[in-house]
């Protein structure tokens, strides 16, 4: 394990590293794909999150499991850590996050039984500015996301058999058909979305009831939190993700498409 279950740690993963933990022996893609199909059939469309995580715990071992977390809240890491303490929590350290997001990451690392891993792109913001010009996000947001989110995550996920995400069906029209369990062909591992059927209100209620770390921006008009230059407040009644890449036709960073 990358960290003992009773302690939290924050570890920086280099851009080319599969995982900061000792690399486990992974099952074949054929075996994992069959498991994903079996899990989807067993859990159906709306099994409770705890049942979904329990299925993972029965069929997968640490450290071959990871949780992806944007640090908007800590509900998913907390739910998974209840049944799989010491799990790696992957934070995409783009270099562009709000100060509140970094503070939430540090609070998660300090207070939950997880191992927070900073997933780094190949270049720092300063290096990228020198190579491609300043503020790539303003000129080509898709390329910026590809370099600072998609590619680093893909490299890191190569060291795991399964990843959890907090994607919910109510977040955007592009996410309404999100399954609980699926085979992630692009990244070559099982993808599990245990909170797919949750609403934003359920998320907030669970977080408050369990006194979990939460990004203060959620209460300040930011229901979907990404990189600071590409995220604005959302007006009442707007789509929760309307504040992401506002003014463009971009709706996803590429992680879940």
TrEMBL record:
<dbReference type="GO" id="GO:0043866">
    <property type="term" value="F:adenylyl-sulfate reductase (thioredoxin) activity"/>
</dbReference>
<comment type="function">
    <text>Catalyzes the formation of sulfite from adenosine 5'-phosphosulfate (APS) using thioredoxin as an electron donor.</text>
</comment>
<comment type="pathway">
    <text>Sulfur metabolism; hydrogen sulfide biosynthesis; sulfite from sulfate.</text>
</comment>
<dbReference type="InterPro" id="IPR014729">
    <property type="entry name" value="Rossmann-like_a/b/a_fold"/>
</dbReference>
<dbReference type="GO" id="GO:0070814">
    <property type="term" value="P:hydrogen sulfide biosynthetic process"/>
</dbReference>
<dbReference type="GO" id="GO:0004604">
    <property type="term" value="F:phosphoadenylyl-sulfate reductase (thioredoxin) activity"/>
</dbReference>
<feature type="binding site">
    <location>
        <position position="144"/>
    </location>
    <ligand>
        <name>[4Fe-4S] cluster</name>
    </ligand>
</feature>
<dbReference type="GO" id="GO:0051539">
    <property type="term" value="F:4 iron, 4 sulfur cluster binding"/>
</dbReference>
<keyword id="KW-0560">Oxidoreductase</keyword>
<dbReference type="GO" id="GO:0046872">
    <property type="term" value="F:metal ion binding"/>
</dbReference>
<feature type="binding site">
    <location>
        <position position="230"/>
    </location>
    <ligand>
        <name>[4Fe-4S] cluster</name>
    </ligand>
</feature>
<protein>
    <recommendedName>
        <fullName>Adenosine 5'-phosphosulfate reductase</fullName>
        <ecNumber>1.8.4.10</ecNumber>
    </recommendedName>
</protein>
<comment type="similarity">
    <text>Belongs to the PAPS reductase family. CysH subfamily.</text>
</comment>
<dbReference type="GO" id="GO:0005737">
    <property type="term" value="C:cytoplasm"/>
</dbReference>
<feature type="binding site">
    <location>
        <position position="227"/>
    </location>
    <ligand>
        <name>[4Fe-4S] cluster</name>
    </ligand>
</feature>
<dbReference type="InterPro" id="IPR004511">
    <property type="entry name" value="PAPS/APS_Rdtase"/>
</dbReference>
<dbReference type="GO" id="GO:0019379">
    <property type="term" value="P:sulfate assimilation, phosphoadenylyl sulfate reduction by phosphoadenylyl-sulfate reductase (thioredoxin)"/>
</dbReference>
<feature type="domain" description="Phosphoadenosine phosphosulphate reductase">
    <location>
        <begin position="64"/>
        <end position="233"/>
    </location>
</feature>
<keyword id="KW-0479">Metal-binding</keyword>
<keyword id="KW-0963">Cytoplasm</keyword>
<dbReference type="Pfam" id="PF01507">
    <property type="entry name" value="PAPS_reduct"/>
</dbReference>
<keyword id="KW-0411">Iron-sulfur</keyword>
<feature type="active site" description="Nucleophile; cysteine thiosulfonate intermediate">
    <location>
        <position position="253"/>
    </location>
</feature>
<dbReference type="InterPro" id="IPR002500">
    <property type="entry name" value="PAPS_reduct_dom"/>
</dbReference>
<feature type="binding site">
    <location>
        <position position="145"/>
    </location>
    <ligand>
        <name>[4Fe-4S] cluster</name>
    </ligand>
</feature>
<keyword id="KW-0408">Iron</keyword>
């Amino acid at each position: 394990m990358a960290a003992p279950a009773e302690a939290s740690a924050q570890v920086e993963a280099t851009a080319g590293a599969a995982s900061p933990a000792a690399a486990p022996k992974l099952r074949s893609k054929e075996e994992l794909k069959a498991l994903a199909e079996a899990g989807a059939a067993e859990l159906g469309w709306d099994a409770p999150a705890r049942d979904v995580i329990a299925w993972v715990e029965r069929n997968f071992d640490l450290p071959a499991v990871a949780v992806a977390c944007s640090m908007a809240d800590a509900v998913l890491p907390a739910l998974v850590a209840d049944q799989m303490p010491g799990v790696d929590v992957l934070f995409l350290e783009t270099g562009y996050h709000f100060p509140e997001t970094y503070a939430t990451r540090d609070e998660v690392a300090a207070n939950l039984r997880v191992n927070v891993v900073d997933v780094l792109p190949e270049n720092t913001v300063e290096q990228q500015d020198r190579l491609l010009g300043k503020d790539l996000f303003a000129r080509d947001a898709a390329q910026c996301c590809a370099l600072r989110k998609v590619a680093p995550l893909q490299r890191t996920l190569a060291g795991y058999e399964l990843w959890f995400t907090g994607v919910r069906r109510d977040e955007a029209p592009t996410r309404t058909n999100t399954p609980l369990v699926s085979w992630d062909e692009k990244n070559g591992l099982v993808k599990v979305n245990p909170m797919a059927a949750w609403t934003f209100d359920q998320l907030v209620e669970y977080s408050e009831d369990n006194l979990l770390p939460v990004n203060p921006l959620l209460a300040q008009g930011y229901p979907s939190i990404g990189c600071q230059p590409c995220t604005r407040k959302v007006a009442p009644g707007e789509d929760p993700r309307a504040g992401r890449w506002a003014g463009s036709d971009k709706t996803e960073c590429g992680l879940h498409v």
